[in-house]
Amino acid sequence: MITIIKKMIGGVSVPDKKELSESSPIEFAGLPGELILFLSQHIGAPSVPLVKPKDTVKRGQVIAEPCGFVSVPLHAPTSGVIKAIEPRYHPGQARMCEAIILEPDGKHEPAEELSPAASDLDGISPDEIRELARQAGIVGLGGAAFPTSVKLAPPEDKPIDTYLLNGSECEPYLTADHRLMLEQADKVMFGFKGLMKAAGVRRGIVCIEDNKPDAIEAMKQALSAYDGLELAVLSTRYPRGGEKQLIQAVLGREVPPPPGLPYDVGVLVSNVGTAYALADAVLTGVPLVERVVTVTGEGVAKPSNFRTLIGTPVSYLIEKAGGFKGTPGKVILGGPMMGCSLRSLDVPVFKGASGILVLTKEQAVEEPILPCVKCGKCVDVCPMGLQPLWISAYAERELMEEAETFRAMDCIECGCCAYICPAKRPLVQWIKMAKADISSRRSAQKKS
Amino acid sequence: MLSAIVTLGAAGLVFGGFLALAAQKFKVEEDPKVAEILEVLPGANCGACGFPGCAGLASAIVKGEAPCNACIPGGDAVADKIASIMGVVCEGVEPMVAVVCCQGDDDRAELVAQYHGVMDCHAANQLGGSKGCPYGCLGLGSCVRACPFDAMYMSPEGLPVVIKEKCTGCGACVRACPRGIIDLAPCDKHVHILCSSYDKGPQVRKYCRVGCIACRICVRSCPQEAISMDRDTLAKIDYSICDNCGVCVAKCPMKTIVDTRLPEAEKQVS
Fold first, then answer.
1. pTM, rounded to two decimals
2. Which residues 6+ apart lie within 8 Å of A388 measured at CB?
């Protein structure tokens, strides 16, 4: 069954710029000189290292074990020698984080214990899938990096009736999910069925934006092999693929404000990359040691989609994509709307990073920040129904408690408000500041 | 005209009388000491004591929840006055001053990027700032804006400067700094280690000309053994032991350790 969905609350139409990299097939990026593997690649407690400097490791070997329930192990993406365990700058968390530094030996030798868990889904039980997802270090690859094994075990009193597979990839420029659906549709679908089985959900809906007709075709064919799967084709509008936005559009259900989660309305959402990673773990036994990363933008010579080992430095990937074209103005980890600009290229790709975007000097013009003219455009486009102008105005004056009353914590940081603002105000940056302040205050309160 | 004056006058008398009665009837008994203490407190509402403003501290002292010397900006003078109001003897306040533990200004620290956006250290810290050093001063002046005593300014080279005469040691800047590079030191200590980087020596050398490279010369040379290494990568001085001898200042190869009494230090910490 195919449904076509056009409705959406708020959002903006952004030039999607996917033509730059959507036709380049996924290639293996190769082995860089060193891999930087953060112990904290996921939401939850950082993993605890199991290796020491000078240890030799094989591909897929566990190098750090989970610490607590909301945590996952970390695996060596290739064979080599551990150079050090030291703090490195983590661009996602904007602070120094402990990282295992691995020097590849070039052999890319797999650990002996890697063997397929099952050849089809009948041969594996839901509990086994959940355990496998944890052992394989699988986290949500859409960006938030929430441990999948935790997501697959919702509380008993929250029955789940629908599982959404998020292939909308609404973020402009990025084509990693697009290529994955096109090239590996069967495996993605297998992984999705596995996720559904583990969560005990019968109804599954694959959600794709209509700017990827070839991926829709491929996924339509792949899902015809299974029962109980539907396809939802959504009109292209940003931020279509936000978890809450997707549930609202496809099922018409509204996820309650934080700490409300999709399972409160009986839904789970996973990214296509996550489904693929699970399929990989079931069929080949290879844990989550690589992901697809789009390296794109007008500032790179050859925009590409790379199958990239976790921990590969950004500088290496840009080199692989033919290097810079012209003078680079800004390098962003992630997409243009939600990504964070990098101050140095010596940072690695981590599990939650789906793209590297290089903008040219001309594109990265800095316009002066003007006073708010109260036009209300940010209120119109906010998909969460917030009033970004007031949250940011309070945050600007360091009145964080007032910002909290305007529901700063509900902000999903999609960037629509800052995109539309005629006064070029960095609204999201202020809101992020308020969010950081509010959550640090909340955790201090919890402790005392 | 006359009727208006009479009516309004009468209404005024009636309401005035009512308010006077209400004030008598619903009077809240407040310890007169609270008002007296509030009178001697500096009134900057800086929050250094940990209570919501000076009025909060005054009532806390009267209730016995805070010591007489809790007001750090007020120092000894205020502590004495409060002690006499409360009729107790109280220890003096150790006068403190804020010290910015970073010398990486635009000339001495390597800039790796240009920062655009919200001109606030907290916002810049979420992107890592523009300097190569991930621990150093972001240079956007959040501490200067937080100072309730106008005791800080930004130097032309982009580092905050503390005006020692004006600084009361309230710690508002310490709380405002997202990187935690501002410390409070006793006023009578003049030797400070002005670096906050926990990176290893070779790394620090790459991005800063005045950063601590953890060579440990200061640790070995200090006659008082007041300096130790924190996390093996950053020298820390114990102000309770330091006697201002200045041996480490002369020995430090990176000029990270500074004696504020020396004239060349004027530019770094005033």
1. 0.88
2. A378, A379, A382, A411, A417, A418, A427, A428, A431
Distance from CA of B142 to the nearest CA of A (A): 10
Given an 8 Å threshold on Cβ–Cβ distance, is A344 in contact with B130?
Answer: no
Residues A404 and A262 occupy one common structural domain: no
Nearest-by-Cβ selection for A433 from B123, B128, B135: B123
> Number of structural domains, chain A?
2
Residues A385 and A275 in one domain: no
Q: Which of B121, B127, B143, B231 to mutate to test the interface with A (most CBs of A within 10 A)?
A: B127
**Long-range contact set of residues B235-239: C-beta below 8 Å, sequence gap at least 24:** B235/B193, B235/B195, B236/B193, B237/B191, B237/B192, B237/B193, B239/B185, B239/B186, B239/B189
Could A343 and B198 be called an inter-chain contact, meaning their C-beta atoms sit closer than 8 Å? no
**Residue B93 clears pLDDT 80, i.e. is over it:** no
Q: Which residues of A touch B141 (CB under 8 A)?
A: none
The residues of chain B that CATH labels 3.30.70.20 are: 96-265
Amino acid B265: pLDDT: 53
Residue A188: name the closest of A154, A150, A145, A218 by CA. Answer: A218
Residue B132, pLDDT above cutoff 60: yes
| Residue B130 to residue A432, Cβ atoms within 8 A | no
Residue A148 structural domain: 2-23+119-284
Digit-coded pLDDT (tens) for A160-202: 999 999 999 999 999 999 999 999 999 999 999 999 999 999 9
Among candidate residues A258, A284, A310, the one where a domain is terminated: A284
pLDDT band at residue A302 under the 50/70/90 scheme:
very high
pLDDT tier, B33 (very low <50, low <70, confident <90, very high otherwise):
confident
Would you give the DSSP letter of residue B50? S
Is the CB of A430 inside 8 Å of chain B's CB atoms?
yes
- Domain B32-86, CATH number (from 1.10.15.40, 1.10.10.10, 1.10.3720.10, 3.30.2000.10): 1.10.15.40
The CATH number that applies at residue A274 is 3.40.50.11540
**Does residue A295 lie in a domain region?**
no
Distance from CA of A339 to the nearest CA of B (A): 11
- End-to-end alpha-carbon separation of chain B, Å? 68
Q: Answer whether A361 touches B (CB < 8 Å).
A: no
CATH class of B96-265: alpha beta
